[in-house]
Design brief:
alpha+beta, STM4215-like, 3 helices, 44% strand, globular
Length: 155
């Protein structure tokens, strides 16, 4: 295989792939994307998943090894308030445990990405789980929007 991705990108792709599979197995017509631009280009319902921030902490005093924690953000763009609540509960149930961490790579000049399992991603804590209230003129995608943010670690 050619170019390997770094850990942060692998965390994001592993999480997106896992939730895309879980949502696809249980919900019909829900599109999973990784950017706002993609989310607003699709018809609702849409789930947008992305890695927002990396927190770098030292593994122990005097160590040069980091114990990173990654903030994942999920925006749910639903068709109704009921669907928003159901999708948020479903996603919360899916992230409460662990999922497979993969090392992803692609050959130069190719667009296909291949993942090789190499551990687990574990949800550490949920930092935000609420409806997004927008009081100005609301785009149709934002009418029934929900935000979930949580921290994960690689094991």
């Amino acid at each position: 295989m050619g170019n390997y991705f770094r850990r942060t990108r692998n965390i994001e792709l592993s999480t997106i792939e896992y939730l895309q599979r879980m949502i696809g197995n249980s919900w019909s017509g829900v599109t999973v994307v990784k950017s706002f631009l993609q989310a607003y280009a699709e018809e609702v319902p849409v789930v947008c998943i992305r890695l927002d921030e990396t927190f770098n902490g030292k593994l122990e005093i005097g160590s040069t090894t980091y114990s990173n924690t990654y903030a994942i953000v999920i925006d749910i763009f639903a068709k109704s308030d009921a669907q928003r609540l159901d999708l948020s509960d479903f996603i919360m149930d899916q992230i409460k445990g662990t999922w497979t961490y993969c090392n992803y790579a692609h050959n130069s000049g190719r667009t296909d990405i291949v993942g090789t399992p190499d551990g687990k991603v574990n949800m550490a804590t949920v930092t935000y789980n609420r409806k997004v209230e927008i009081f100005d003129a609301v785009a149709s995608q934002d009418k029934f929007r929900h935000l979930i943010t949580f921290l994960v670690r690689k094991f």
